[in-house]
Amino acid sequence: MAAALVRFGIPIFGALPLLGLTIAFFLDELGADPVEKVTHETGEWALRLLLLTLLVTPLRRFAGWSWLAPHRRTLGLYSFLYAALHFATYLVFDLGFDFTFLGEDIAERPYITVGFASFVILFALAATSSKGAIKQLKKRWTALHRLVYVAAIGGVVHFLWLVKADLREPLVYGAVLAAILAARAPWNRIIRR
Fold first, then answer.
1. What confidence tens digit (pLDDT) does each residue in 86-118 have?
2. Does residue 30 contact residue 89 with C-beta atoms inside 8 Å?
3. Are 178 and 55 in contact (CB under 8 A)?
4. Threshold 0.90, pTM exceeds
5. Is 11 exposed, middle or buried (CB count within 10 Å of its CB: 0-12, 13-18, 19+)?
6. Which of 5, 125, 127, 115 lies closest to 67 in space, CA to CA?
7. Do residues 188 and 171 make contact, with C-beta atoms less than 8 angstroms apart?
8. CB-based contact 162:118 (threshold 8 Å)
9. 54, 72 in Cβ contact below 8 A?
10. For 19-72, what is each residue's pLDDT tens digit?
11. Can you tell me the distance from the alpha carbon of 69 to that of 188, in angstroms, rounded to the nearest whole number?
12. How many C-beta neighbours within 10 Å does residue 61 have?
């Protein structure tokens, strides 16, 4: 029963923020600047879901929640979905689909550079998340998917550099990521050395 709830609950949980934004759009409740609201919401959900994806292994290891392991891919793909929506909103509404402006922003604005690099990594991870890709890439798949940590660090840095005044929220994400990375450190090998 619990496994069935989790199996159906995680996809529903991942879709709820998008459903909320869609309802807010149709009810005209996205505020004075709807593009900014959608951009920020999708970016933050991409980061939240990415951190939840990274949290699966520590929860499995330390809390014995092995039932979460099969859902890591779903969480990761939802993270990519929100990152893609975040990027698409910026590309379409802020840049008017002008790839020249995109290139200039990537070259001149560090927070865009870091955010775009994280998006490219998440794209590569999503594109290779199938069982077929795992079989085809073999050991290279594991090496490639370790880049998720680089994407997560980039996502936190992107958010930190984006915020101009109140740094509390991106610092909370940074602290959560630091705790996840610390929990994943090979402590047995570190202590033996």
1. 999 999 999 999 999 999 999 999 999 999 999
2. no
3. no
4. yes
5. middle
6. 5
7. no
8. no
9. no
10. 999 999 999 999 999 999 999 999 999 999 999 999 999 998 888 888 888 899
11. 22
12. 12
- Which tokens belong to 173? 């994400």
Structure tokens at 42: 């999708």
Q: Tell me, what DSSP letter sits at residue 96?
A: T
What CA–CA distance (Å, rounded) separates 174 from 63? 22
Q: Residue 139, exposed/middle/buried by CB under 10 A (0-12, 13-18, 19+)?
A: exposed
Domain spans of the chain?
2-192
* Count of alpha carbons within 13 angstroms of residue 23, beta-carbon side: 6
- Give dist(CA 151, CA 125) in Å, integer: 10
Give CA separation, 154 vs 12, 15, 137, 147, in Å: 27, 24, 25, 10
* Backbone phi and psi for residue 175, each to the nearest 5 degrees, phi listed first: -65, -40
Six-digit token pair at 17? 């923020």
Token pair for 140: 């290279």
Q: Distance between terminal CA atoms of the chain? A: 45
Size of the chain, expressed as the number of residues it contains: 193
